[in-house]
User: What shape does this take?
Amino acid sequence: MDLRDEVTELTRALVRVDTSNPPGNETAAAELLREYLAGSGVEAALYARVPERANLVARLPGGDGPSLALICHTDTVPADAGEWSRDPWGGDLVDGVVWGRGTLDMKGHVAAAAVAFASLAREGFRPAGDLILVAAADEEVGDDVVGLRWLTDVHPEAVRADFALNEGGGERVELAGRAYYLCSTAEKMSAPFRLRVHGRSGHASMPGIADNALVKAARLVQVLGEYRPEPELGPEVSAFLRAVLGEEPPAAEAVARARALDPVAAEIVEPLLSFTLSPTMIRASRERNVIPAVCEVTVDCRIPAGKGPADVEPVIRRILGEDGYDLEWIERWGGTRSPMASPLWNAIEEFVEQSEPGARVVPVCCAGFTDSHWLRDAFGTVAYGFFPARAMDPALAARLIHSADERVPVDDLELGVDFLRHAAQALSR
Assistant: This one.
């Protein structure tokens, strides 16, 4: 079996293991991977805070050179089979495409990392520094603290690395007729907060004698939804614009200049110019005929790397006013970055040039959250999100992630194996 068939079959097998989170049940996927790696003579360890939610870690020992971790997660978001054209956990292979929940996020990547790792082991590859494979649990939710966050706290020796490759980038986009591959070198902080708006309860048939907290909250929701912060150019966006435009425009002109080049460029740039505020949940009265005295609004807030809630809260209070609500930060994850110049960046550039001459690698900041945060925060790891994909239109792939009919072309699985092998070998020269 060649590597293309190997990664295809492993992806299909992983899809058939339902690791929808919640509840996760990632141990079943970890055991499948451990058995697969054993076939190549690789011993893998399972680390579990909760028995049914194990993380897998495997290692090819190296010397004193730079260590590289291949990071991935085995849990997926749930799927409603009624919305799908095929069984979400069937792993069907149709016309060179594997269907199923997690094929893009990120069991196809898991399989590619495992196949790259196992094939190097079979060939007797000895890296300059340790090569580590981490298939973590609980990335999609994270509330149970059983995945990479837990590993960095409780078993740091198992996952410490100088460099890491993870999800969050690798898409091939064409801008003004030129090919670019996006590499995530940073990510925004996930810092949701809760607004608690107070009023006075009463019977819904007599609204004049109550003070409806839901109605009061509606004004705040509208203000948050309409607010657009002042744009700023972070280092990743500046580097991206210089690469695609040949110059760095003022922050206020960045979106327009990117859109004039290509609408896709504007879509990449716009969410990275500032923090974002997205009201997503609201809770008020539990009864139809009771005017609520309290209304809670949850707001998804994403803050650029290098800033935090202390920078954003004064702005929120200014646009909402100081009175009539309580503000509580729920969590503060992410907001990390890695340098854009490194031996790993050079390895990525080399691979792209070899596989598609003339294409360029450009840095971006991931607008979402990945497990790269935990490695950067704990060890100062230079972590990039890069898993090359060019067989599927990136706009289609973006729509399929966390949605129905998720699927991945086998060509991209094979490309991912080739890249991960190249990165490990390049860091060992």
User: Anything to note?
Assistant: The first helix runs from residue 3 to 15.
